[in-house]
Amino acid sequence: MKRLLSLFSAVCFASPLFAADAPFPVSVTVDAAHSLGPLKPVWRFFGADEPNYTTMKDGRRLLGELGTLRPGEVYFRTHNLLTSGDGTPAHKWGSTNAYTEDAAGRPVYDWTIVDRIFSTGLARGVRPYVEIGFMPQALSTHPEPYQHEWRAGLPYERIYTGWAYPPKDFEKWGELVYQWAKHCVEEFGAAEVERWYWETWNEANIPYWQGTPEEFIKLHDYAIAAVRRALPTARVGGPDFAGHGGPRMHEFLEHCLRGKNHATGETGTPLDFISFHAKGSPAFVDGHIRMGIAPHLRTLDEGFAIVASYPELKAKPIVIGESDPEGCAACMGGQFTYRSGTVYSSYTAASFARKYDLAAKHGVNLEGVLTWAFEFEDQPYFAGQRVLSSNGIALPVLNVFRMFSRLGTERVAAESSGAIPLDDILRQGVRRAPDVGAFASRDAHQVAVVLWHYHDDDVAGPDAAVEFAVRGLPDTLRTARVSHARIDATHSNAFAEWKRMGTPLAPNQQQYDALQRASQLAQLAESPASVAVESGVATLHFALPRQAVSLVVLEWE
């Protein structure tokens, strides 16, 4: 085991981005005149298990960073908004103490902590994607033990304590949700709360829910009826199942469409959006991490197919409430160290492009894709947790979202000779040739293109020698300004800079400032400032290393 970990460390801390092999040619062509329709910014959703980190120093900083990506349109989902406790965070834990009972069993509501969580986000341009859960201790059918003591390395099943159980009184549960939603309207205003998403629980088709499937449906009905009683125009949905849900998803959708509502006695339950989760499945193979993009995308493929099978639901907005390379965000060290570097960032770029393609394949309305990654306060630097920043320092993956925020409002056609066809990725992932692809957009005077060089295996490989052509530019245009941002071993990569420093346990001020500079989205210095345009065509040439992501923007007056 010790030898295996040593081998992993050697691979993980060596740069996989450069190899002695000769570069291979890739031709990328963008047709700015070929519109594929409006480009929804589906990437603007984020989340985490631990709500209380959002109000701490680095949490506030990161929320502010996310809010600037698309002010007022970024959403944050978090567990534990109704969990009992004093608000002290821990891994896979958080609390607000919103509900307790007095000696006579009468409800006592306290919105202090949950208001602080919501207000902190709203002040930074981030709106709530409200997860109605988990069960307050005073309402749980199994109140002891309540707070778990899980930490990285312990068995995962230890987290499912009293918060995961049904309520002892569904009427009290419904009243709690009503009082909460009513308070939100009073505190933040109906116009604001109308823009939020409200859904019940998390992954109630696995042990996050310790009741029966029917009890979850009942829980959901009471919660949604309560929200709509407080605000009839509230946006409500669900079920945020783990995976596509399969038969459980069909059961949920059938109930919402045609079942008897447990709370109101009427037919059906309001459903303004449909949500489920999708995760990849990486493995440790031959001394390196091998990503599992195929099962991630297959889950989306099957989930979209389920929704599309209901004609009355095909146009409903879909939010992928968690969409990540694997499951446990709080796990760290060992094989998870890849998440601090460019494996994670290149995976993110490659997978998001295919999520759009899968939605188009099924003709469904993909509204959001939520990245379940935030930050853990005062942890070791680059510990390998699935986060967007470490001790206030952005990771390469956050720079991918900075790139996404520069994309335009309309998607246009892009073809790459190095892209792996979607059907091949669904079958076998990216295990042979690498995936060198492009995703393009336009506005009135701009074309913005994200390009990536991805492989499931975290091993060295040759650069792609990219010939990049943009066609369909205005016939009268003679020159366009060029900006070329890059994420790779030497750009937009604080993790690589930290390794170059010798992996200091506690960086000094000079080192911390250097890490901050390295964490910003960097321009490729050798990129030209402008490009000639002839007959509506602009052409660039550049190398794209393994695991690199580029954002190329052409602008003109």
Give a topology summary:
Layout: H1 2-12, E1 24-38, E2 45-48, H2 57-69, E3 74-78, E4 99-101, E5 107-109, H3 112-122, E6 126-132, H4 170-188, H5 190-193, E7 197-200, H6 213-230, E8 235-241, H7 247-258, E9 273-279, E10 283-285, E11 288-290, H8 293-308, E12 317-324, H9 342-362, E13 365-371, E14 389-390, E15 393-394, H10 396-404, E16 410-416, H11 422-428, E17 435-443, E18 446-454, E19 464-471, E20 479-487, H12 494-500, H13 509-518, E21 522-523, E22 530-534, E23 537-544, E24 549-555
Parallel strand pairs: 1-19, 2-3, 2-13, 3-6, 6-7, 7-8, 8-9, 9-12, 12-13
Antiparallel strand pairs: 1-16, 4-5, 10-11, 14-15, 16-17, 17-18, 18-24, 19-23, 20-21, 20-22, 20-24, 22-23
Q: Could you please describe the fold and organization of this structure?
A:
Residues 1-19 form the signal peptide. InterPro entries: GH, GH39_cat, Glyco_hydro_39, Glycosyl_Hydrolase_39. The chain is an alpha/beta fold. Helices cover 28% and strands 26% of the residues. It has a nine-stranded mixed β-barrel. Strand 12 (317-324), helix 9 (342-362) and strand 13 (365-371) form a beta-alpha-beta unit. It is globular and about 80 Å long. The chain starts with a helix and ends with a strand.
